[in-house]
Amino acid sequence: MPLRLSDLAIGKSAILDGFSISQLHKKMLSMGVSPGQSISVVRKLPWKGNLYVRINGRALAFRYEEANQILVRD
After folding, report:
1. CA atoms within 13 Å, Cβ hemisphere of 49
2. Fold of 3-73
3. What pLDDT, in 10s, does the model give residues 33-61?
């Protein structure tokens, strides 16, 4: 069952499953991030702040609103 990246706990890894809005999908593909890649949460700022993640060894940050649109699976 897909989870949202925003729900993934710090230190946990998952597989990027997709995006719930097409604008984000285009943005992620332009950065070289696509479904099927491994993603892990490194840090979460409080009060629905930014999420810092690693995707295939690359460090990226997402706003909470973006992370809530990124679907992952175990």
Report:
1. 6
2. SH3 type barrels. (2.30.30)
3. 899 999 999 999 999 999 999 998 899 99
